[in-house]
Model the fold of this input.
Amino acid sequence: MSTPEGVTISRTGETGAFGGELLSVNFGPHHPSTHGVLRLIVDLDGEQVRSVKPVIGYLHTGIEKQMEALRWQQGVVVTDRHDYLSPPINNLAYALAVEWLLGIDVPPRAKALRVIMSELTRLSSHLVWMGTSGLELGAMSMLMYCFRERDTILDMNEEISGFRMHTSYIRPGGVMADATPRFLEMLDAFVRAMPGHVDEYEDLLTMNPIWRSRTIGIGKLSADDAKVLGATGPMLRGSGVAWDLRKAIPYSGYENYDFDVATSDLCDCYGRYLVRIKEMREAVKILRQALDKLPDGPVNVDDRKILPPPREELETSMEAVIHHFKLFTEGYSVPAGDVYVAVESGRGENGCYVVSDGTHKPRRVKFRSASFVNLQALERMALNHMIADLIAIIGTADAVLGDVDR
Amino acid sequence: MGVEALAESLGQNILTTTLGKLIGWGRGNSVWPAQFGLACCAIEMIATATAGVDIARFGSEAFRASPRQSDLMIVSGRVSQKMAPILRTVYDQMPEPKWVISMGACASTGGVFNNYALLQGVDKIVPVDVYIPGCPPRPEDLLNALMILQERIKAQGITPRQ
Amino acid sequence: MIADNLVVERGVSAGDAWITVDPANLRSALSALKDDGYRLLVFLTCVDHLLDASRNWPARYELVYELRNMETPEHLRVRAFIDGDPPRVESVHDLFPPANWEERETYDMFGVKFTGHPDLTRILMPDDWVGYPLRRDYPVGGEVVEFSEEHETWQTAPEKA
Done:
């Protein structure tokens, strides 16, 4: 492959600190350890990294353009697929943004169900992260353990929404359907079992000498650097900054739950790992509270202009048929204006900036993705480390390339 | 040992077959996929390799990082215009005989993303043997596709592609 | 404190406070806001108002800078309307490091030239790509789907105003 224009491989031939020449190495986009199709151009001095230049866009899907071509209620399907490890959280950002523009508020039961789905997703996202990062750093069995619990979560997704991964469960005006009794039973069993499983992961990794020596002191990112570079999520909290959107700018009723913001002062890969472990425990805590206090009532707003009427009404009410027809041929229009809503995903601040021009399709939808911004801190973290440590650093940055490239 | 006894014991231990069937049997039961994850489907591909579904039962647990060591490319996810030449390069690097599974709606047809950025079906650049519908397909779907592919490989014998 | 003479218009949209500044003063306004405590650039993007009848827009392209004060935590949206072919505006990558890639993305998708950016190249699309995909006169592309809604206009762009 020839070098694309604009990618400067400049430093080859310079003399390094050990008297040898610097060597530029291409890393990816097809590489087993880059968590997808990330490409890096790394300048190496012997084994030491002197500069890292990420090249992204290999998974650019045109999601923002696609949203402009879809009606408001159709867009939910596309939001699932940009950060594919946390679909309901993306749904939530989009749904909240559209609801802000429409000026509607969803019933309490819908809010609680949204919190439940968000936290389940956070768990499954962290589980995928831990499984794959463990695999890359030599802890193969982590993958088996983590995907075991992830499958339990996906079974719950399937029970509540009919689909394993891309649930499209949270949509403007409420949620797709009420939780079934079986879902609540499964959730209860899961919440009981999960703390024990997190203990298992900690048994395998926290005091594991290989894991510790490959992560402690690797990928240092000071709190100031993290703030300046705009990092969010476990990247920022792993540097000791207690910033969590669920606490700072609560949404969907998060202010009613009692949980701690996980932080670590280690500022390295191990710190970020500890933050994620703590977050998993906190997520279970939130799930327990949400399940115990789950309010009764409807799960959707009572507005026939936004959500279709119940199926049984279509057979008896002419008005319901008209609403149904209008909704599925033309959709609804949203008042002109713009709004930005940010939610805390497993990777940090995932936001949705929506501009409406008053028609039945959005004028512009911009996804603020945590991975895109966090990935810019990669060079700062990887500088002067060994090339093998780069794997640990990419791993704990936890960039999902679908989220980076959109 | 007498000749009769030798013939008797060998008689129970020799199978006769054609060379094509033997090779097909061997190839079909040791399909090594390339470790080529693209998007959402890649996560389900990983899930297929874990204990719950266990692709190792079908001899395909050895995901190879190098295309030179793999027989099967599972295109797991959407292929962007920028990724397409790289995907083709990976495919060209794989030794013959090689097979391709197009996993999921995006790889097969572009899926919900009918737009400028995506290749509308990976079969525009590489020949595909089995398509899997779904967005993303379940791990069981991938196993089913693998079994269909195995049947086909076994039937192909010595000369896999015309 | 941001000087009042920099602000052209202020308002609140769906609960979010915003100000509009003249594009020539954009950098000084953002710099003043940074000194006020808005230290995080949450995102930067552009909106193309081609054929948008919802308002009388001052120019075709609207640049949007979402700033956040992480202490309070207040949000402020800064807008600037620019025109021209290509539209030009001063880069702020040195004030807000996350703007580096965001500006490259905005250039890639809208063709907005950020003067003073160290490496203003395409970031998501291939380097030899022609056109700026998120402009409203760029077609969605893909393949025509028979019997689908608006299948004739799917691949074609709206006509020029």
About this structure: Strands of chain A lie at 22-27, 39-45, 48-55, 170-171, 174-175, 337-345, 348-356, 362-368. Chain A touches chain B through 37 residues (CB under 8 Å). Residues 63-302+332-405 of chain A form a domain with the Cytochrome-c3 Hydrogenase; chain B fold (CATH 1.10.645.10).
